[in-house]
Amino acid sequence: MLPAQNARPRARSPFAAAFLSLVFPGLGHLYAGAAQRGLAFAALPLLLLAFIAGVLLRIPQAELLALAVQPWLLTSVFVLNLLALAYRMVAVVDAYRVAGFVNAWTASGGRVDRPRVPRQPLSIAGLLAVILVLSGAHVAVGRYDLLAMDTAECIFLERDCPATTPSPGSSVDPSAEPSAEESAVPIESAEPSLSLPPVGSAVPNVTAPPWNGTDRLNILLIGADEQAEAHNTDTLIVVSIDPVTRQVALFSLPRDTANVPIPPGPARLVLGSSFSRKINSLYATVEERPDLFPGTERTRGYNALKAVLGELYGLDVHYFVEVNFDGFVKVIDALGGVTVNVQSPLVDDRFPADRGRLRRIYIPAGVQHMTGAQALVYARSRNASNDFERGQRQQRVLLSLARQIDAATILPRINELAVALSQAVRTDVPRDLLDDLLGLAEDVDLSTIRSYVFSAPVYGTEVTEPIYYLYPDVERIRAAVRDAFVVDPEFAARREALAEEGARVWVLNGSGDEGAASRLAAYLEYVGMAASSPNQRPEDPDLGVTRIVVYNGAEDRLGTTIEVLEEILGGEAELTDDPAARVDIVITTAGSTPDLTPPPAP
User: Is 314 a member of any domain?
Assistant: First the structure.
């Protein structure tokens, strides 16, 4: 059989042409046989994609993240998304029509100028489905763009946004220790009320100068408890970064710290030279007092905290970042949890639960993957430990989060994370400074961060009546902040370890050298011990050798302290029991005791 002559070309499906142009503009035209028209439709998207790829390859990840929250870029993306939707829709419809026209023209043998394109209901339904899919994709992009704009405006205090609503039981993880019974014991005695004079004239809206890019950068991290009516700032950590050496230090101030110095200005005239209440209540105290600190009702409390902590530390605190506790739970849950290396088991029989009740919680030692509620319990528990340990745990959670956040973690959860962030996070960091800040953060080695917790006994004195207060040793705190980047890291780590043990040490003068005991006590305070030299004669003077006596089993919890004392003084500690002993360790100096004094302050 002879082959058929002048066989007709196979008809092209208009639906297939429309679908291919959905995949990429111009593909449907190429399929239909209109190559030049297809290349014309593909040229603009190809150029645009090449430009975007070049930008993404050349710009560091930190700069891209900073750009992602800039208002001009978010608005541009929204407009471009609408234009792209219109362009792609035209390409899809045109490919559909071209395929139908080519089929009709081929069927007529090319004998008419404008062949009639038949209308096929099934094919038209396919075209509408393609348009619906196309529109859905761009609507999703637009929605996420609007979500990003809304989230950024809330975070950067550009408009009022509702805070997250505490969910029932969110303060305690139900898996922590469900077998324990709750009790209706009061959680904490309230502070005495503070009487203030009537509101005076508003102060000028002048705050700390913005960061200049070269000096030490200081950012206040705030953890706020908004589950009650008051806005209590229970976590206060100043992150200090040296942009030259890329060193970072964290300074934690316990929430119960009182008598924190107030900088010169209107607030000092009203409140006095120091804030007599706990530092976690400063925000609520000044929030509606425009005569005390600059700012609006939204920003005044933050400006007060920056100014007062800056006065305490001897720093300019440039910016703040706040996370409320319920939002903290939601952010961590949105990220899929956080993995924390728990240094020692945490047991707290009096952790605050709902409705003023208390509950027992337990978190074992080791590497633990925590939910948001578990991480909050771990960071906030304070009844079975001291403020030093609590501050360390808070810093450990923050650093663990910083190490685990990446694009692969964020992108699958972007929707719930954006909602949680808009409700939980507030900051006054300028958007146009994010590029520099993120670039600086990229160069920081998290393993070399230096942590300071300004707790008793090294950095303050505890008072338990009428309620618990921590009175800061201002000069010692300022010295630690000032020297954070010049002190040997090993020395700083040992000093913090000694502070954590909290040994009570007396130094008695058995050498006859006037002032020897007080000089040694000052040196021991310098290295991290709570040492003093009472005006008391030793029972056995003129021993000839330095004597170190450890009382009543204190050696079980003061291993590092005893090791350091034996190293410094060149002797071996004696262990004894004496119910009358009022301290843990008594040192009696001798003629052979090294004459040690702390270095002079620079």
Answer: no
CA 357-362-368 angle, to 5 degrees, is 130
Cα 170 to its chain centre, rounded Å, is: 19
Locate 172 and state its tokens: 């305690």
Q: At what angle do helices 71-107 and 14-23 cross, to 10 degrees?
A: 160
- The residue among 48 and 175 whose pLDDT is bigger is 48
- Specify which residues 532 forms β-bridges with: 506
Q: How confident is the model at residue 175 (pLDDT cuts 50, 70, 90)?
A: very low
Q: Rounded to an integer, what distance in angstroms lies between the CA atom of residue 207 and that of residue 191?
A: 29
In sequence order, the β-bridge partners of residue 450 are 249
N-to-C CA span, the chain: 107
CB burial of 524-544 (b: ≥16 within 10 Å; e: otherwise) equals bbbbbbbbbbeeeebeeeebe
Exposure letters 547-558 (e unless 16+ CB within 10 A, then b): bbbbbeebeeeb
Q: Where are the alpha helices (DSSP H) in 274-371?
A: 282-286, 300-313, 325-334
- Element holding 217 (H helix, E strand): strand 217-225
pTM over 0.70: no
Helices (H), 444-558: 474-482, 489-501, 516-527
Domain that holds residue 90: 14-109+119-155
| Lookup: tokens for 358 | 């208390």
Which one, of 564, 575, 573, lies nearest residue 499 by Cα?
A: 564
363 belongs to a structural domain:
no
Distance, CA of 582 to CA of 586 (rounded, Å)? 10
Residue 10 DSSP SS3: coil
Average confidence (pLDDT) over 254-264? 94
Residue 227 in domain: no
- Which tens digit of pLDDT belongs to each residue from 117-139? 556 777 788 888 888 988 888 88
Place of tokens 């449907």: 28
User: Is 379 a domain residue?
Assistant: no
Rg (CA), the chain: 34
Does 433 have pLDDT greater than 90?
Answer: no
Q: How far apart are CA 431 and CA 420, in angstroms?
A: 19
Q: What is the dihedral of CA 435, 150, 237, 384, to 10 degrees?
A: -140
- How far, in Å, CA of 90 to CA of 96, rounded? 10
In the chain, the number of structural domains is: 2
CA dist list (Å): 24 to 21, 46, 93: 5, 10, 13
DSSP per-residue letters across 430-442:
-GGGHHHHHHHHH
Of the candidates 398, 394, 454, 426, the one whose C-alpha atom is nearest the C-alpha of residue 256 is 454
pLDDT, position 585: 94
Domain CATH code at residue 506 = 3.30.70.2390
- Pairwise CA distance, residues 12 & 100, whole Å: 8
Q: How far apart are CA 245 and CA 486, in angstroms?
A: 11
The β-bridge partners of 258 are none
Count of beta carbons in the 10 Å neighbourhood of residue 4: 7
How high is the pLDDT of residue 170?
Answer: 41
pLDDT digits (tens, 9 = 90+) for 569-602: 988 999 999 988 889 999 999 888 888 877 654 3
Q: 426 pLDDT exceeds 60?
A: yes
